[in-house]
Amino acid sequence: MKLVLFVVMTFISMSSYAEIYKCNVNGKYSFQSTACDNGVVFKLKKELSKKDQQKAAILLERDLDARARRIELNNDKRDKERLIRASEVEANATVEQARQQAISTEQQRKIELRKKPVFISPNSKGR
What we know:
The protein has one domain. The protein is built from 2 helices and 3 strands, in the order αβββα.
């Protein structure tokens, strides 16, 4: 039983040290346990030094800040576009309201003209 356990543990530990291949497929990288056409063997480092960890943390923070700025700029741009569209809709509504008011005023003027009596003076017949 101990021998079987020893053999199994040996194979498990050997598989954990298998090579990892970094492959580039259509511009995207993936990692796999089998070799690929354009793959390179990817060596995992056991530990990063404190200095390397700090560098990685700084790079990560910069990347996150840049991403946050891009998102904020996109949100600002989208908000400005919404305000412009809302202003256009409001302006179009105001123009339409003014047009309708002008039509209504003209119709009222015509109605008032029909209601007014027209006087024809007797002196104006022959002239």
